[in-house]
Amino acid sequence: MSRILGDYDTTDLRRFFVYYQQCQAGAKEFGAKLENLDSEFEILTNHNPIHHMETRMKAPQSLMRKLRKKGYDFSFDAIKNNIFDIAGIRVITNYIEDINTVEEALTKQTDVTLLKRKDYISHPKPSGYRSLHLVVSVPVFRRSGPVSTPVEIQLRTVGMDMWASLEHKLRYKTNVDQQKVEKYGDQLKGYSAELNQIETNMQAIFNDLQKDQS
Ligand code: 0O2
User: Fold this and answer.
1) I need a labelling partner for 4 at 20 to 30 A (CA). Which of 171, 191, 195, 213 fits?
2) For the residues of 12-53, what is the DSSP string, one character each?
3) ipTM above 0.95, yes or no
4) Domains of the chain
5) b/e per residue, 104-119, with b = 16+ CB within 10 A?
6) How far is CA 190 from CA 41, 122, 196, 204, in A?
7) How far is CA 28 from the centre of its chain?
8) Which residues contact 57 (CB under 8 A, 6 or more apart)?
């Protein structure tokens, strides 16, 4: 870390370390909330919208890259005011409507505040990327008392997740030749629209079958 950050104000650096740990504690809070919902859906309903979850802390290199991309040098304030995905949780669902079920169950909890919502499902990115991104906060208890702490939650179906993993390889691997990037990029954009159609049709079948079970 010191190699990346150079000779920065150590007070600022310490505030950053504490904040990084605080974000990790925030992710644990949301992890527990999601685990509780997962158990409750499993036991009490005939369909659990949560397929699986993944939690990650943003690596310092990636954090610094994002900060520079946004036009800031390292400082605690620049990080706190501009980077909201230090802690991230990905929730993978089976069906498209499950995404809103999980979103609602999570955001209606009284200690959760919705800070930001980006709906790349209704409005996919130019690449074809689809997901629902939420920045939500929860109080984390520090010595001074409760401190609101942001965590980014990405919600997507199994299909959207498979697509994003493959497209991520194409986009972020530096050694892929440009011709392939363009060719596969176009192809993947098409597959994103096709997947959306398939997932919408499968949702309709699922909803119809659910009627027979209720
Ligand atoms: P990493 O290592 O995956 O975490 P903001 O975070 O809102 O200030 P930003 O970064 O433009 O601004 O947010 P955006 O675009 O809403 O979401 C960023 C994250 O979404 C990315 O993380 C990716 O994980 C994912 N993502 C966004 N667009 C695409 C895309 O076109 N293809 C794929 N595969 N993933 C995408 P990071 O921060 O880039 O890095």
Assistant:
1) 171
2) HHHHHHHHHHHHHHHHHHHHHHHHHHHHHHHHHSS--SEEEE
3) no
4) 2-163 (3.30.460.10)
5) ebbeeeeebeeeeeee
6) 34, 16, 10, 22
7) 14
8) 20, 23, 24, 27, 86, 87, 88
Please identify, by atom number, the ligand 1 atom nearest to the C-alpha of residue 154. 20
Task: Please give the number of the atom of ligand 1 that sits closest to the Cα of 70.
Answer: 8
C-alpha 116 – ligand 1 centre gap (Å): 14
Q: Which amino acid is located at 28 in the chain?
A: K
Euclidean distance between CA atoms 26 and 40, whole angstroms? 21
Instruction: Give the whole-angstrom CA distance, residue 190 versus residue 47.
Output: 30
> What type of residue sits at position 76?
F
This prediction has a pTM of: 0.92
Atom of ligand 1 nearest to the CA of 58: 4
Q: Residue 153: in which H helix or E strand, if any? A: strand 145-157
43 pLDDT higher than 90: yes
Count other Cβ atoms within 10 Å, centred on residue 206: 15
Structure tokens at 98: 């499950």
Q: What local confidence, expressed as pLDDT, does residue 213 receive?
A: 78
Ligand 1 centroid to Cα of residue 203, in Å, is 26
The per-residue pLDDT for range 78-100, each reduced to its tens digit, is 999 999 999 999 999 999 999 99
